[in-house]
Specification:
Elements (H helix, E strand, L loop, with lengths): L3 E9 L3 E6 L2 E6 L2 H6 L8 E9 L8 E5 L2 H10 L7 H7 L4 H9 L3 H4 L7 H11 L14 H21 L4 H14 L6 H8 L2
Parallel strand pairs: 3-5
Antiparallel strand pairs: 1-2, 1-4, 2-3, 4-5
Helix pairs in contact: 7-8
C-alpha cells in the first residue's frame, strides 16, 4: 500500500504525472487543485505527494491519486464516501480549493458545488446531505500547510467556547458565525482578529 511518494518528476500530462522514485516510475492522477501547484515544476525537479491508493475488484488496476497535504487526502476520502462519487469522478471534480468546497458544504451552497466539474444539482445535494457537519476543519485549510490548520482549529475552538458558554449563543449559530467570519476574512490568524470579524 503506497501512501507517500518522494522522487523526481519524469513527465507531466493534463491530469497525471509520472514520478521516478527508486528507479520505478509511478503514474499518479492529480486533481486540478494539485496540478496547479506544480505549474512551475519541470522534469527532473524533486516532488513529494501524499497518495490515495485505490484498487477494487471492479477496478483491479491500482490507481494512485496525489495530494500536496495530508489533510487534502483526508478530505478526498470523505468526498468519495458520498454516493455516486467514485475516486476518478472526484479527481475530475476537485477544481476549486478544498477549503472553498468545505465552506460551501457547511453553508449548504449547492450553487458553489455545481461549479465542480461533473457535479450537477442532485449530486451537490447528496454531498451536502452526506458531509455537512464534518467539514469545519477542511474549511480552515490555508495555503501555508498543516501547522496553520492546527492553530486555526485551536482558535476556532476557543471562539466557539466563548460564543456558547460566555455569550450564550446556540452551538449551531456559533459554528455558523465562525464559518462566515473565516469566509469573509481569509487573513485571520489570531483569536482577537476572529472575535472582531465575528462581531463585525
Amino acid at each position: 500500500m503506497i501512501s507517500y511518494i518522494e522522487g523526481k518528476l519524469l513527465k507531466k500530462e493534463e491530469e497525471r504525472i509520472i514520478i521516478l522514485a527508486n528507479q520505478i516510475g509511478y503514474e499518479i492522477l492529480l486533481p486540478a487543485i494539485v496540478m496547479d501547484t506544480l505549474k512551475t515544476k519541470t522534469a527532473g525537479k524533486e516532488i513529494s505527494l501524499y497518495i490515495y491508493y485505490h484498487q477494487t475488484e471492479r477496478q483491479p488496476k491500482p490507481v494512485l491519486i496525489g495530494f500536496n497535504l495530508e489533510i487534502e487526502k483526508e478530505f478526498f476520502q470523505h468526498f468519495i464516501s458520498v454516493e455516486d462519487i467514485g475516486p476518478l469522478k472526484a479527481v475530475k471534480a476537485l477544481n476549486i480549493p478544498v477549503r472553498e468546497i468545505a465552506s460551501a458544504i457547511e453553508s449548504k451552497d449547492a450553487a458553489k458545488l455545481k461549479q465542480l466539474k461533473g457535479i450537477g444539482t442532485r449530486t451537490a445535494q447528496k454531498i451536502i446531505a452526506s458531509l455537512k457537519g464534518k467539514m469545519d476543519k477542511f474549511a480552515l485549510i490555508t495555503r501555508d500547510g498543516p501547522d496553520e490548520i492546527e492553530i486555526m482549529e485551536d482558535i476556532s475552538k476557543q471562539m466557539l467556547n466563548v460564543l456558547i458558554y460566555q455569550l450564550g449563543h446556540k452551538s449551531n449559530d456559533a459554528k455558523r458565525m465562525i464559518a462566515e467570519a473565516l469566509k469573509r476574512n481569509r487573513t485571520i490568524s489570531t483569536f482577537e482578529e476572529l472575535f472582531e470579524e465575528v462581531y463585525h
